[in-house]
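G., the chain you wanted modeled:
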Amino acid sequence: MDCVSPILDVATRLWDCTAKRVVYIRELEKNLNSLERLTKELSNLRTDVMDKVEREEEEEVPQRRRKNEVGRWLSAVQAMEEEVEEILQNGRQEIQQKCLGTCPKNCRSRYRLGKTVTEKINAVTELTDKGRHFDVVTDRLPRAPVDEWPMGKTVGLDLMFEKVRRCLEDEQVRSIGLYGIGGVGKTTLLMKINNEYFGRSNDFDVVIWVVVSKPISIEKIQEVILKKLSTPEHNWKSRSKEEKTAEIFKLLKAKNFVILLDDMWERLDLLEVGIPHLSDQTKSRVVITTRSERVCDEMEVQKRMRVECLTPGEAFSLFRDKVGENILNSHPEIKRLAKIVVEECKGLPLALIVIGRSMASRKTPRQWEQAIQDLKSYPAEFSGMGDQVFPILKFSYDHLDNDTIKSCFLYCSIFPEDHEIRNKELIDLWIGEGFLDKFADIHKAHNQGDEIIRSLKLACLLEGDVSEDTCKMHDVIRDMALWLSCESGKEKHKSLVVEDVELIEAYEIVKWEEAQRISLWDSNINEGLSLSPCFLNLRTLILRNSSMHSLPIGLFRSMPAIRVLDLSGNGGLAELPLEICRLESLEYLNLSYTDV
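Predicted structure as tokens:
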């Protein structure tokens, strides 16, 4: 029995081998027909795929990842068609060469051919299956980790760029807030960081830029992120906000990411978007830009940096780039006048760029002198200021919380350029104007005034640390506030501020009859004020530091609606006319630093 088992095993194997060979020989004609049919189907599929490729090329579809794969498949199909055609020809000849009509003359060659035909059937079937997966011929190439933003030469941002770079490389700092006045260059700085820092080799898998603005749209932000993560639209386009949140969270959790959030006006819940908590990420970062320091607080950024205006040297360099060396060097006086223009911009890049471009067409000192006069007298009418600079700055004003804060902000423009305003003095004026009249208690009104000043400083509309008891207005912001006070320039004389004028003549004063607020600083006023038409709309009159010994007779008869009267700083003023008693609307009278 021990000998029988091996013999049976050998016999079985011999039979199996013989049976397979018999099948190759016997089924040759049938398999040749199958191979011909399958190859024809493969050829039809190749035609369909080529049509899809041509359509995408006509539509200028960007280069995509699977295009090479499709190309290799098409080449393989073409080679297969040539091989099969040769096999079919050999097969037809072999079938015709039979002994007595049934028996092949050469079993060995017929066996080899049959085996080849079977192998080709399997190969053709495999190619066909692969080709059927090209429903979408190509997929988009994965987007670059960083999208480079087009930008020109930058001025005055190198130092700030280095500060941000050091923070980005500090493993303890996961979030950074860049804040500052509108037009100061926050977005430009963020572009520089995106292009120069993230554009080189680093440890981040993806850098995503999102313009947030207001009102915040969570779904628009999610759409930007999903596109950057190369997620096919059909995977998320019709899904709910919550499903998109889960998808973004899953994708970002596995990456070292950087989210650059530009132009933020209020708090954004990062988890609601799908952005993982930064404490759970080893290297990921979030950088925001905003006009409000308060947003930095609400976003709980670990490092905040104020983007400051340019230094005088940097400001002149930027202005020179926009005007052009040829204009500046065309006349010896123009360079001197250019420095005056630059001083008016107080280092604000937006103003320097807009005004610089406008001045590039002025080629004589006379034209420059006229431009300076216009810029100082009515800046809103200077080319580019009223339609480019002020509207951008106005966004900060528009986003103030309520009308009371807006009124308080505009009121700050009655002070001269570069004037350091004492908080208490400003709040007293606000109370006198009735801005804080909802408080019966003077102390509560002052507390509210302090909070308004704080909020304006946080919004970068007033300068100075929130803990200081003084504040200032940037000159261009002040020009914008005066423009708004005068109904965006429609009523020039609604709010007037005059300073450092040796003698104000009566003919000039006549133009002021529609004014609601008049503020005169360090100026000499003559009897013309009392001879002018009635100031029926005047609510506020500030006559400071005018060295007056007496007020013009009949002055107060011409302004029956006056509410705020500030005569402080007139050291020689010893008495007031009795007619002041007739000012029934008067709420605030300041006689400090006078002899009254």
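The two ends are 140 Å apart (CA to CA).

Shout if anything looks off.
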